[in-house]
Design a protein that fits this description.
2 helices, mainly alpha
Length: about 130
């Protein structure tokens, strides 16, 4: 999950909690306006409902906070794992390139020595033929 997706998830959850709280307030206000009860009873019931909504909102906020913290820890752990894997891969690649480079250098040295030996032999053979024809 990318960092942008994580921010959207946390933002959506936070928006949901806010919407829940605002919806509770609107519902309470609507109950106050349309209820056929005396004012004192209505205010008492409204106060009880507001307490319930407030408690529920706190519970939701607590859950959202907990989930966001868990998500942040998970993202942090996964990021560290990816960084470790990349570092190990880099070390393997550097090691492979260094070994291949050493192998190429060895092969070039061997080829150079073979060419020098062949050239020296050809020079000796040519010298012997010149000496034999003179």
């Amino acid at each position: 999950m990318s960092n942008m997706d994580n921010q959207n998830t946390v933002g959506n959850t936070s928006s949901f909690a806010k919407g829940l709280f605002i919806g509770g307030l609107i519902g309470a206000a609507a109950a106050l306006l349309f209820a056929p009860k005396p004012g004192r009873d209505l205010r008492s019931e409204l106060s009880d409902k507001m307490t319930i909504v407030s408690d529920k909102t706190k519970d939701v906020a607590s859950v959202v906070s907990s989930k966001a913290t868990d998500l942040a820890k998970t993202v942090s752990t996964k990021t560290a794992d990816v960084a470790k894997t990349v570092a190990e891969s880099k070390d393997n690649i550097v090691s492979s390139v260094a070994k291949a480079s050493a192998d190429v250098a060895d092969e070039a040295t061997k080829a150079d020595q073979e060419i020098m030996d062949a050239t020296a032999k050809a020079a000796k053979d040519s010298q012997k033929q010149l000496n034999a024809t003179s």
